[in-house]
C-alpha cells in the first residue's frame, strides 16, 4: 500500500474476538469514514506495531486474556504512546467507567454493540 | 414583777433554748433526748406520756424523771385516751397510787396524792394524747397548760419533719435499688441479644455463603453471556444493510459461530449450577 497521496489516519481495533473486530471494521467502512483500519486480536501485537503506524485512534476492549485493557493503557503511558483511546466493552460497569476517567488518553467509553451512528460520533 | 410573770419569762427562755436545740435534731432519738433534758424547765411532773396516735405509724413517748424511752410497736391506747379522742376535752383527775402505777410504764419516784392532767391535740391525721401525772411535791398546774401546748406543737412538727425525711431517704434508696436492678437487667438483656446475634450469625453463615455463590454465578452469567450476545446484536445490525454475498460469506458463518459459542456457555453454566445446587443442598441437610 504505497502511494503519494496524503495518507488516511490509522485506527487500531484491539479486541480478542475476531468477530467483534470484523463488526467494527464493517461499521467504520459503512459510515464512510476515511481511515486505514488495522485489527489485532492480541493486544501485545498492537503495542509492537504502534510506533510503525502511529494510530490516531484505538478502539480498546477491556476483557482480554493476554493483556487486559488497563494493562494496555499502562503500557501506552510507559512507552509514551499518544493516541485517542475509546474503550469498547460488553459490560457497562460503573467501576470501570470511573476507572477510565483516570486516563487522559481515554476520550470515550462505549458499550457493545456499536452502531454506524456511534462510530460517526467518535470520529467526527 | 410578780411571781407568775417571772415564771413565764424563765419558762419561755427555756423554751427558746429547747426549740433551737430541737431544730438541730435529725433522728427520733435525738429529738427525744433534747426533749427529755429540757422538760423539767417547763413544768413539774413525775411522768409524761405522749401518745402519738396515727393509723399509719403510731408512736408513744414516755418520760419520767429518772428515765425516758419511746415505743413504736404494740402501743396500748388507754381507756381515758379513747375518751379524750372522742370528746377532745382536757381532763384533770385525782388518782389513787394503784391507778397511777397502772398508767406509769417507767420507773418513777413515790407519789403523794397523785393527779393526772390529760389533753388531746388534734393535728388532722394525727392525734396526740398527752397525759401528765404529778403530785403534791411536783405539781403540774393549770398555768402550765399553755407551755405544754407550745411544746407539743414544736415536738409534733419535729417528729413529722424527721419522719418525712426518713421516708424520702428510704424512697431514694428504693429508687437507687430499682435503678441498679434496671441497669443489671439491661446488661442481661444486652448479653442475651449479643448471644442471639452470634447464634444468628452462625446459623445464617451457610445462607451468606450460598448468596455469595449465587452472586458469583450471576456475575459469570453477565460476563460470559453479554459478550457473545453483543456480537450477535452487532452482526444482526450489520445484516440489515449488507449485500446477499456479504451476508452469506461472512455474517451468517459468524452468527453461527457465535450462537454455538453461546450454546456451549449455557451448557457449561447449567452443568456448573446444578453441581453447585447439589453441593449446597448436601450442606443444608447436614
Secondary-structure map:
The complex is a heterodimer of chains A (124) and B (286).
Chain A: E1 10-14, H1 18-30, E2 36-40, H2 43-53, E3 57-60, H3 69-78, E4 84-89, H4 94-100, E5 106-111, H5 116-123
Parallel strand pairs in A: 1-2, 1-3, 3-4, 4-5
Chain B: H1 3-24, H2 28-42, E1 47-53, E2 59-64, E3 68-71, H3 79-87, E4 91-94, H4 97-103, E5 115-123, E6 126-134, H5 145-203, H6 205-240, H7 244-285
Antiparallel strand pairs in B: 1-2, 1-6, 2-3, 4-5, 5-6
Helix pairs in contact in B: 1-2, 1-5, 2-5, 6-7
Please, could you describe this protein's structure?
The complex is a heterodimer of chains A (124) and B (286). With 124 residues, chain A is α/β, with parallel strands linked by helices. Chain A is built from five helices and five strands, in the order E-H-E-H-E-H-E-H-E-H. Chain A has a five-stranded parallel sheet, with helices on both faces. In chain A, helix 3 links the parallel strand 3 (57-60) and strand 4. The radius of gyration of chain B is 50 Å and the shape is rod-shaped. With 286 residues, chain B is of the alpha+beta class. The N and C termini of chain B lie far apart (111 Å). Chain B folds into two domains: 3-175, GAF domain (Beta-Lactamase, 2-Layer Sandwich); 185-285, Helix Hairpins, CATH 1.10.287. The A-B interface holds A 17, 19-20, 22-24, 26-27, 30, 63, 90-91, 111-115 and B 222-223, 226-227, 229-231, 233-235, 237-238, 241, 250, 254, 257-258.
Q: What can be said about the biggest beta sheet of chain A?
A: 5 strands, parallel
Helix content of chain B: 55-70%
CATH superfamily grouping of the largest domain in chain B: GAF domain
- How many runs of DSSP E, i.e. beta strands of chain A? 5
Q: Please report the two chains with the greatest interface, counting residues with C-beta closer than 8 angstroms to the partner's C-beta.
A: A-B, 17 and 17 residues
Mean pLDDT of chain B: 88
Please trace the helix and strand order of chain A, writing H or E for each element.
Answer: EHEHEHEHEH
- Over all CA atoms, what is the radius of gyration of chain B? 50 Å
> What class would the helix/strand composition of chain A place it in?
alpha/beta
Amino acid at each position: 500500500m504505497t502511494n503519494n497521496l496524503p495518507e488516511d489516519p490509522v485506527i487500531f481495533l484491539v479486541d480478542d474476538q475476531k468477530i467483534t473486530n470484523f463488526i467494527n471494521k464493517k461499521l467504520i467502512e459503512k459510515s464512510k469514514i476515511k481511515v486505514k483500519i488495522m485489527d489485532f486480536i492480541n493486544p501485545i501485537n498492537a503495542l509492537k506495531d504502534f510506533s510503525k503506524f502511529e494510530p490516531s485512534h484505538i478502539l480498546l476492549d477491556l476483557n482480554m486474556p493476554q493483556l487486559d485493557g488497563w494493562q494496555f493503557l499502562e503500557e501506552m503511558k510507559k512507552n509514551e504512546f499518544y493516541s485517542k483511546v475509546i474503550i469498547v466493552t460488553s459490560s457497562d460497569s460503573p467501576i470501570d467507567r470511573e476507572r477510565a476517567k483516570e486516563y487522559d488518553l481515554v476520550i470515550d467509553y462505549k458499550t457493545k454493540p456499536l452502531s454506524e451512528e456511534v462510530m460517526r460520533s467518535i470520529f467526527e | 414583777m410578780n411571781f407568775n410573770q417571772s415564771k413565764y419569762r424563765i419558762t419561755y427562755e427555756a423554751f427558746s433554748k429547747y426549740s433551737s436545740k430541737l431544730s438541730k435534731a435529725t433522728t427520733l432519738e435525738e429529738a427525744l433526748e433534747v426533749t427529755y433534758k429540757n422538760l423539767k424547765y417547763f413544768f413539774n411532773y413525775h411522768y409524761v406520756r405522749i401518745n402519738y396516735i396515727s393509723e399509719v405509724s403510731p408512736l408513744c413517748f414516755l418520760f419520767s424523771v429518772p428515765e425516758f424511752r419511746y415505743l413504736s410497736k404494740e402501743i396500748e391506747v388507754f381507756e381515758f385516751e379513747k375518751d379524750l379522742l372522742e370528746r377532745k376535752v382536757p381532763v384533770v383527775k385525782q388518782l389513787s397510787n394503784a391507778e397511777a402505777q397502772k398508767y406509769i410504764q417507767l420507773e418513777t419516784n413515790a407519789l403523794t396524792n397523785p393527779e393526772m392532767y390529760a389533753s388531746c391535740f388534734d393535728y388532722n391525721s394525727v392525734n396526740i394524747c398527752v397525759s401528765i401525772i404529778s403530785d403534791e411535791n411536783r405539781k403540774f398546774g393549770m398555768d402550765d397548760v399553755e407551755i405544754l401546748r407550745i411544746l407539743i406543737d414544736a415536738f409534733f412538727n419535729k417528729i413529722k419533719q424527721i419522719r418525712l425525711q426518713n421516708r424520702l431517704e428510704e424512697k431514694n434508696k428504693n429508687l437507687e435499688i430499682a435503678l441498679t436492678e434496671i441497669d443489671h437487667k439491661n446488661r442481661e438483656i444486652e448479653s442475651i441479644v449479643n448471644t442471639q446475634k452470634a447464634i444468628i450469625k452462625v446459623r445464617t453463615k451457610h445462607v451468606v455463603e450460598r448468596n455469595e455463590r449465587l452472586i458469583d454465578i450471576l456475575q459469570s452469567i453477565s460476563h460470559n453471556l453479554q459478550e457473545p450476545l453483543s456480537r450477535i446484536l452487532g452482526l444482526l445490525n450489520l445484516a440489515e444493510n449488507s449485500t446477499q454475498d456479504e451476508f452469506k460469506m461472512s455474517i451468517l458463518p459468524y452468527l453461527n459461530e457465535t450462537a454455538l459459542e453461546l450454546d456451549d456457555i449455557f451448557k457449561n453454566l447449567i452443568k456448573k449450577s446444578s453441581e453447585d445446587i447439589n453441593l449446597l443442598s448436601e450442606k443444608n441437610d447436614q
